[in-house]
Design brief:
The chain has 6 helices and 11 strands. It has about 230 residues and is of the alpha/beta class. It has one domain (about 5-234): Spore Coat Polysaccharide Biosynthesis Protein SpsA, Chain A (Alpha-Beta Complex), CATH 3.90.550. A hairpin with a 2-residue loop joins strand 2 (about 25-30) and strand 3. The protein is globular. The two termini are about 30 Å apart.
């Protein structure tokens, strides 16, 4: 692993959260989600640069302070997450080497803590394979039919909830996403693309605090988590 470049897909609208503005610009403690997320990534000296994929028609990004950091650049994103990540990879293609890696992180995961980020990078360095943060499934899972009736209880012992960041060799991820695009497959995370391309991806336990803001209630929970992290860092 030579250099690590981060890509943050932030061109979406966050339809499930609702509201008048895209969720990456909703505020926690008067600071936009995207700003919290970029600050978490920029804490790492291992990350050489961050490419943020934005909706080019949305001027709200002009108010994000971290976008002026010398390590941060922007590029136009796409309608889907995978298109935005691929746009970020293409924007970095002229400067990466064959040994460089890509770390992809959700714009709406503002509570990534520094120890987890460092652990992910070190684990990838040690195993030489793609690695994602993930959390073992704790709830009982039910399979349900079209009428809402339970048909089975699913064995959860080997099931994990994927988080981000997700870290892969640049060329492996680039080729995997391009193959999915060519086949018309809409992947929901980068690990899925690499899996479909035949690559092996490992999981590293991530903290329950590394939540993705999806619903309105998540904003208040994320604020509590960030407040706790700030107290621990003080």
């Amino acid at each position: 692993m030579s250099s690590i470049w981060a890509v943050v897909p932030a061109a979406g609208t966050g339809r499930r959260l609702g509201g008048e503005i895209p969720k990456q610009y909703r505020e926690i403690a008067r600071i936009p989600l995207l700003e919290h997320t970029l600050r978490a990534l920029l804490r790492s000296p291992d990350i050489r640069g961050v490419m943020v994929a934005l909706d080019p028609s949305d001027r709200r990004a002009d108010g994000i302070p971290s976008l002026t950091d010398v390590r941060v650049e922007t590029t136009p994103g796409g309608a889907e997450r995978s298109a935005s990540v691929l746009a970020g990879l293409k924007a970095l293609a002229d400067r990466v080497t064959s040994d460089d890696w890509i770390l992809v992180h959700d714009a709406a995961r503002p509570c990534l803590d520094y120890p987890s980020l460092c652990a992910l990078i070190e684990h990838a360095r040690g195993c030489g394979e793609g690695v994602i943060l993930a959390e073992p499934v704790a709830d009982t899972l039910k399979r349900v039919d079209g009428e809402g009736a339970i048909t089975a209880t699913v064995d959860r012992s080997a099931l994990w909830r994927a988080q981000t960041p997700q870290l892969f060799p640049f060329h492996q991820l680039h080729h995997a996403l391009e193959a999915c695009l060519a086949d018309g497959v809409n992947v929901t995370d980068e690990a899925m693309a690499v899996e479909l391309a035949g690559g092996r991806v490992r999981v590293l336990p991530g903290p329950p605090s590394n939540i993705k803001v999806t619903l309105e209630a998540d904003l208040a929970f994320a604020e509590l988590l960030l407040h706790q992290q700030n107290r621990e860092d003080a």
